[in-house]
Prior knowledge:
- This protein has helices at about 1-10, 25-40, 55-65, 80-90, 120-135, 150-160, 185-190, 220-230, 255-270, 290-300, 310-320, 345-360, 365-370, 390-400, 440-450, 455-470, and strands spanning about 15-20, 45-50, 70-80, 95-100, 110-115, 145, 170-175, 195-200, 235-240, 245-250, 285, 305-310, 325-330, 335, 340-345, 375, 380, 405, 410-415, 415-425, 430-435.
- By secondary structure, it is an alpha/beta fold.
- It has 3 domains: about 1-150, 3-Layer(aba) Sandwich (Alpha-D-Glucose-1,6-Bisphosphate, Chain A, domain 3); about 175-370, 3-Layer(aba) Sandwich (Alpha-D-Glucose-1,6-Bisphosphate, Chain A, domain 3), CATH 3.40.120.10; about 375-470, TATA-Binding Protein (2-Layer Sandwich), CATH 3.30.310.50.
- The longest helix has 15 residues, at about 25-40.
Amino acid sequence: MLALKAESCWKEADLRGAYPAEISTELFERIGGALGTRLGPQARVMIAGDFRLSTPSLKDALARGLLATGAQVLDAGQIPTPVAYFAANRHEQDALLIVTASHNPPGDNGLKLLLGGRPPSAADMSALRELSGRGEFRIGLGSLMPIRPLPAYERFMIERWRHIDPEFLPELVVDAGNGAWSEIAPRVLSALNFKVRCLSCQIDGSFPDRPSDCSRPANLRRLRELVGSLDHAVGIAWDGDGDRVAAVDGEGNAVSADALSILMARELFLPRGFGEARPASDAVVIDGKLASVVQREVERLGGEALLERTGHAFMRTRMIATGARLGLDACGHFFFGELHGADDGLFAAMTLLDCLQRSPLPLKELVKALPPSYGSPELRIPLELISFAKAAAALLDGFPEAKVGRMDGIRLALPNGIVLLRESGTEAKLSLRIEGVTADSYAQILERSMSLLPDAEATIQAQLQEHREG
């Protein structure tokens, strides 16, 4: 049973699962051995991890496996995932391994990988999985060298955003969710002279204050209530490992990923938006789950909109391949050409603050002035209720007039809207998003979709109610 469970943690471009049933120290030691064997003699591998309770033992297991093959291991410690990406861009290495389950529940853990500076391909993951299972590893005597990337990262951030005048904002409320930015973000923001008020800024890998997923407004109730009670404040929140960001306006409303994406794109295309060193490309990589208004706005701004599959590996690979300026994601990941295509929740927060500093309008008014969009939040349907194959077949049969795209699941383009269904790469759930050209067409497509998915209707209704109540 345990072996079968361990197999389920292998995803298309990373690993994710419950600890220790699916993710275990034994598995991670074998992965270290497999990667060290695959990379060859004297491979240089950087390892890092988030602050989950299981991370230290899993990171140590990776190191043991690597060292036994003769690898040179650079140990960056427990840091936010974006700081690990930053370190990887400044240290010569063949691979980066980050022990993290990102926004998943506290009992989960996982592994994010970069091989040669790029996310792994399906073939890379298949080979690593096969070799780790076979257990035939090279034997060598490796070396371990601790490194401290955090001071250099903080210096970079403070220098990069020193031009912002914090006086435009009476108060900034940050909710780190007991995660990886808990101590670092307040320190950087205070060094930039922001008036910072902290929520859940004590590191605790059990995430006692709220779930680590900051993309759900219901998880940000304390932040929203506090910001709404203050005068002209803005709220910022991050997920467990720090690569996602969320924002709350002065009325205590969570700002949608669609709205944040448009604001990020507008800031990017300002003449001074990203400083002098921004990439020359006008390409913007757009997660296919985002509302179509995001693509239209990028094109209106003069950008080249490139639709891509959901997921870090696909978004970042496309960023690197195209030299894109920006990547926009429906769950709060923002990828920056300036950061070699990496996503960084703190850098994204600073980009938003830069945008707000330049605007005569507060965040709530900026959002209200954006082009209208009529659609659902991302609706998450457990696979135990309905399989992807069954749900897809029902929607395809129920919308025979649709033009069907299959880049990521199925995308049904209708005369008056869109239905997108895909299987999550990190959880045993389906992702459903529905959009209409008008409020009426959205309501019609939503009602029709729910009638086609009766096994999931109650779950969809509950999530829609939660979203309405905010």
